[in-house]
Design a protein that fits this description.
Shape: elongated
Oligomer: single chain
Largest sheet: 3 strands, antiparallel
Number of helices: 5
Distance between the termini: 25 Å
Number of strands: 3
């Protein structure tokens, strides 16, 4: 039935700037310079957020000369979406059956 939802991943994606970065990287592979231009964030702040995303396994890096490009790992997002889908299905089944614990 339901598997546990990756709460660490949700915590990482809960930050508005990190979620914005993920949205941008879903459309194309970008370097830090592009992400600074798109988000308006300071480079150091952006680099810290990219480090968190990288450590969480959400993005991969690709060196290109003196730049580092970042790309989204869609399988990680798909896995989280699947976990949330299973959670929603469990909630739907519970709602339909009227299951409740007695006091």
């Amino acid at each position: 039935m339901m598997t546990s939802v990756d709460t660490d991943l949700i915590r990482v994606l809960a930050d508005p700037l990190r979620l914005r970065i993920v949205h941008l990287l879903a459309r194309e592979t970008l370097c830090t310079t592009h992400l600074v231009a798109e988000t308006g964030a300071r480079q150091t702040n952006l680099s810290n957020h990219l480090k968190v995303l990288r450590e969480a396994g959400i993005v991969d890096t690709e060196p290109c000369g003196r730049f580092t490009y970042y790309r989204l790992r869609p399988e990680v997002i798909a896995s989280l979406a699947g976990q949330l889908g299973e959670l929603a299905e469990t909630a739907r089944e519970t709602s339909e059956t009227g299951r409740r614990r007695s006091c």
